[in-house]
């Protein structure tokens, strides 16, 4: 079993953070959390409702609060899937850079579009042109994901189980190298 620190997954909508996070936690024997789910549980309402009533700002305030609490309260036994916009606040990026092994799950805009098209629970994509929205968000956020990432894993044309295997290998390699270096 890998003795990894807390692992936090970042990346765009549809990268597979929620799906891969759950599988990765199982593979590593860690607890799985999803910041979106914790936000919903705390609010007693779903994300579309929060965006509707409190705007994106309200959602981002809740997101930062949840990130802070999750990182403080959980030791090394956590895999945390975040929402795609977690990197928008410098305050969040600072927490991510300092407190965890952060994995950027990369997906092309085409894959993001394909994977998000089956669901309507992402308020930012309830526009006439979700592809243009994903493209715009990616241009802003891709450098921010890279800024906080310890590891980057490609997910296009890879089955979730395959992504998890790659991820376990990459984490193992990273931790072995860290040990050798110190
Ligand atoms: N590697 C993958 N290959 C194919 N489909 C995937 C992959 N990862 C996730 N999916 C599917 O894409 C959709 C969005 O995945 P999700 O885990 O909710 O992404 P995120 O949390 O990053 O927005 C889900 O229907 C999921 O089953
Ligand atoms: O990219 C974003 O700003 C968002 C991504 C969503 O999570 P997923 O990335 O898990 O879809 C969710 O946090 C919210 O709808 C906003
Ligand atoms: Mg998710």
User: Which compounds are bound in this model?
Assistant: adenosine-5'-diphosphate, shikimate-3-phosphate, magnesium ion
Helix content: 55-70%
**CATH-assigned homologous superfamily:** P-loop containing nucleotide triphosphate hydrolases
Sheet with most strands: strand arrangement: 2-3-1-4-5
CATH topology assignment: Rossmann fold
Query: How many distinct folded domains?
Result: 1
Per CATH, the architecture is 3-Layer(aba) Sandwich
Sum this structure up briefly:
This protein is α/β, with parallel strands linked by helices and 182 residues long. The protein has helices at residues 17-28, 35-43, 47-73, 90-99, 109-116, 130-148, 160-181, and strands spanning 7-10, 31-34, 78-81, 101-106, 151-154. It has one domain (7-181): Rossmann fold.
Description of the molecule:
With 182 residues, the protein is an alpha/beta fold. The chain has one domain: Rossmann fold, CATH 3.40.50.300. It contains 7 helices and 5 strands; from the N terminus they run βαβααβαβααβα. It has a 5-stranded parallel beta sheet with strand order 2-3-1-4-5, with helices on both faces. Helix 3 packs parallel to helix 4. The model has no long low-confidence stretch (mean pLDDT 94). The structure holds adenosine-5'-diphosphate, shikimate-3-phosphate and magnesium ion. The site of adenosine-5'-diphosphate (ADP) has 16 residues, from helix 1 and helix 7. Adenosine-5'-diphosphate binds next to helix 1 and helix 7. Belongs to the shikimate kinase family. GO terms for molecular function: ATP binding; magnesium ion binding; shikimate kinase activity.
């Amino acid at each position: 079993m890998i003795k990894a620190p807390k692992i936090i997954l970042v990346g765009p909508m549809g990268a597979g953070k929620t799906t891969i996070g759950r599988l990765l936690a199982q593979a590593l024997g860690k607890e799985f959390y999803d910041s979106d789910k914790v936000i919903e549980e705390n609010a007693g309402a779903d994300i579309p409702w929060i965006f509707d009533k409190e705007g994106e700002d309200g959602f981002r305030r809740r997101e930062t609060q949840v990130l802070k609490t999750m990182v403080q309260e959980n030791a090394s036994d956590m895999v945390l899937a975040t929402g795609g916009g977690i990197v928008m606040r410098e305050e969040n990026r600072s927490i991510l850079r300092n407190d965890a092994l952060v994995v950027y799950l990369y997906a092309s805009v085409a894959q993001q579009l394909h994977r998000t098209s089956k669901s309507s629970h992402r308020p930012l994509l309830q526009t006439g042109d979700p592809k243009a929205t994903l493209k715009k968000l990616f241009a802003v956020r891709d450098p921010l994901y890279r800024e906080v990432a310890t590891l980057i894993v490609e997910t296009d044309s890879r089955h979730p189980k395959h992504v998890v295997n790659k991820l376990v290998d990459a984490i193992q390699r990273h931790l072995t190298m860290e040990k050798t270096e110190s």
